[in-house]
Design brief:
Blueprint: H1 2-31, H2 43-56, H3 71-83, H4 88-112, H5 115-127, H6 129-135, H7 141-161, H8 164-178, H9 187-198, H10 204-232, H11 243-250, H12 269-284, H13 290-307, H14 309-324, H15 335-339, H16 352-365, H17 370-387, H18 400-419, H19 423-440, H20 452-465, H21 469-482, H22 487-499, H23 503-516, H24 520-532, H25 536-549, H26 554-566, H27 570-582, H28 587-603, H29 607-615, H30 624-631
Length: 632
């Protein structure tokens, strides 16, 4: 009877936590529907969205070998295949998963310590602003947190019961977490070591049996991804091949510890991807497999570490500082721009600085039993996996549930000391937490400043690409108010003026951009305008200068190719358009490149080449099917 009553109580608590978490997240989701990015994903959200659409259409082995861990895009593709393509339903499912994670925080806290700690930690999670943010995004984060928590819960059950099924379930969920974010793999060898050396009272055979049972769970998901990469992607890639690039971005002489950019790589998402491939292939003097590209960048990162160990040590200290810092560093859509559209996130209830300050004290005063030690090992290993690359809000999210649990330990410990009238202990702990909070909110490296200039440029690009040109112009002008020297804003403004049919305004803006910083993008677009006006010498001069400066920029070769096509020089046009294709152009240009190449090859009577490119031009061009029929 007591057991039944206890189970009912747990069910009531879990339902209440889920309801609170869901209501808060649902209110937030409804209020951010007017966010310009809600139905217009950018960067990683866009990458996941496009990939998932391909999967939903039946192209299951698209993007192989995998550049990014595949679990979330396949999950999103599954959602699209059921509900159709749209952005509200997957975001709604995201907040449901986030609400379930709050329940899991309660259950993990209860298993680690006691029910009150689990309840308090879960309630804190219900209102934590970064959970509200990431749960509504088309990113891997909420799936990472869910798999991690669910896996840890089964691990805690296994430590209590030693049932093989519990260990297998932990392994399965950890495998899923690892193909969502490969950082989780760092815990696998540590856990194996823990199994072999922490259970000294068990015979070696039994401990080896534990390891085998764990591997029965964890291996299938990993092997499935590796086999897809080998057989469908024709390359031996462990989960994803972006690891080497990210490692270099976090470990080079220009690395700042938080930014996924480097001077030699284009700062845009697609441009950085493209340059990482081109530079590696140029340096190695051959076409490379994705795994070889990743290995090249790993080597560049390690070369920096070996050649400048003291500089690297300083960089690592900086990253460790950022791990403890309260400021939520953006990695995709700017978090501050999201907050502008989210009244709930503007309420200063909780921040990471307060959570980690409480959590550190909670760790100090918690019972160091075996189940707690394994959580410490996970937290330390996962934190190390972040610090080895670069630190931002998104990557440290899987640590937050456990920080919340230890924060709850600290709060209840202080309350208990007051109840016991041990005021000295309670007040001293508050002072220590206060000191940690001051440190966590410090800004030694200037990361706390909000780059409103970038926010406005991003908004401008979003409106420009959706054809809302007047709004785009307003945003670009706001960006230039913050920083008149921003050539990215000027070039984007000039491009928007071209789309609006305002060539003179565009010409003025591009000239201003070139005056500030002689750059290939502005030169190229200015060349297009000169060509439209019939100023052929000026146009060619701009293109030549752009080619020298932007030698790996596919857009430069694209526009030069189009220029030569209109100038009735098909061979030169073909040469430049083919070069543009070799330099991994933005997908939005690919159909146009193939269409133009198809028409140009027809002009010089190379029918088979023309067919090949016209077939790849897609459905954007209505005359393609007619042309292809005429060639049979």
């Amino acid at each position: 009877m007591k057991k039944k009553k206890f189970q009912k109580k747990i069910l009531l608590i879990t339902f209440t936590i889920f309801l609170i978490a869901f209501c808060v997240r649902f209110i937030n989701l409804e209020t951010v529907k007017n966010n310009p990015y809600f139905d217009y994903p950018i960067m990683d959200e866009n990458y996941h969205d496009v990939w998932a659409q391909e999967i939903a259409e039946g192209n299951v082995f698209v993007n192989v070998p995998f550049y990014r861990a595949p679990a979330y895009p396949y999950f999103l593709g599954f959602i699209y295949s059921i509900f159709g393509h749209g952005y509200y339903i997957p975001r709604l499912i995201g907040i449901i998963i986030g609400s379930l994670s709050c329940v899991l925080i309660y259950l993990v806290g209860k298993e680690l310590f006691k029910p009150n700690i689990g309840i308090l930690a879960a309630l804190l999670a219900c209102f934590y602003s970064m959970f509200l943010y990431f749960d509504s995004m088309l990113l891997t984060t909420n799936l990472e947190v869910f798999f991690c928590l669910f896996g840890i819960l089964w691990l805690l059950f296994w430590l209590k019961t030693k049932k093989n099924l519990h260990l297998v379930l932990f392994g399965i969920l950890w495998g899923l977490a690892s193909i969502t974010r490969p950082n989780f793999l760092i815990f696998v060898p540590i856990f194996v070591f823990y199994l072999l050396f922490s259970f000294n009272k068990e015979p070696l055979k039994k401990r080896l049996q534990f390891v085998i049972i764990f591997f029965i769970g964890v291996v299938p998901a990993l092997v499935a991804v590796i086999l897809i990469n080998i057989f469908a992607g024709k390359d031996t890639v462990w989960v994803a091949w972006n690891g080497g690039i990210n490692f270099y971005l976090g470990n080079n002489q220009y690395a700042n510890g938080w930014s996924a950019t480097s001077p030699e790589l284009d700062a845009t998402w697609w441009g950085g991807y493209r340059d990482a491939i081109i530079i590696a292939e140029q340096k190695m003097g051959q076409k490379l497999l994705p795994s070889q590209i990743s290995n090249y960048w790993f080597k560049q990162g390690f070369d920096y570490i070996v050649s400048k160990p003291l500089d690297w040590a300083g960089l690592m200290l900086k990253k460790i500082y950022l791990m403890f810092n309260s400021f939520e560093i953006s990695n995709n859509q700017n978090i501050q721009s999201f907050i502008l559209f989210s009244p709930l996130m503007r309420i200063p209830l909780l921040n990471y600085g307060l959570i980690i300050s409480l959590a550190i004290w909670g760790i100090v005063c918690s019972d160091k039993k075996r189940v707690v030690i394994i959580i410490f090992l996970f937290m330390l290993s996962y934190a190390l996996s972040i610090v080895l690359f670069f630190v931002n809000a998104r990557y440290r999210m899987p640590l937050v549930p456990f920080l919340l649990i230890f924060a709850a330990v600290a709060v209840l410990w202080i309350i208990q000391k007051f109840v016991e009238k041990k005021y000295k202990h309670a007040v001293l702990s508050i002072f220590i937490i206060g000191g940690l909070f001051v440190f966590a909110n410090s800004d030694f490296y200037g990361t706390h400043s909000v780059d409103y200039n970038r926010i406005q440029v991003s908004l401008g690009n979003r409106f420009s690409e959706s054809g809302e040109y007047n709004r785009a112009v307003q945003e670009f002008k706001k960006a230039l108010d913050y920083n008149p020297q921003n050539t990215d804003a000027l070039n984007a403004l000039g491009t928007t003026y071209i789309m609006m049919g305002k060539p003179y305004d565009a010409m003025r803006v591009f000239r201003e951009s070139i005056h500030i910083n002689n750059n290939a993008d502005a030169l190229c677009k200015l060349g297009v305008i000169y060509f439209q006006f019939g100023w052929m010498d000026s146009s060619q001069s701009c293109f030549n200068d752009a080619m020298i400066m932007g030698s790996t920029n596919p857009e430069v070769y694209y526009y030069i190719g189009v220029y030569y096509a209109f100038a009735k020089q098909p061979n030169l046009a073909i040469k430049n358009l083919e070069t543009s294709l070799q330099y991994y152009p933005d997908p939005k240009y690919i159909n146009s490149i193939h269409y133009n190449l198809g028409r140009l090859y027809l002009e010089i009577n190379k029918i088979e080449e023309a067919k090949k490119h016209l077939l790849q031009a897609g459905e954007d061009y209505k005359d393609v099917s007619k042309i292809l029929k005429s060639l049979h």
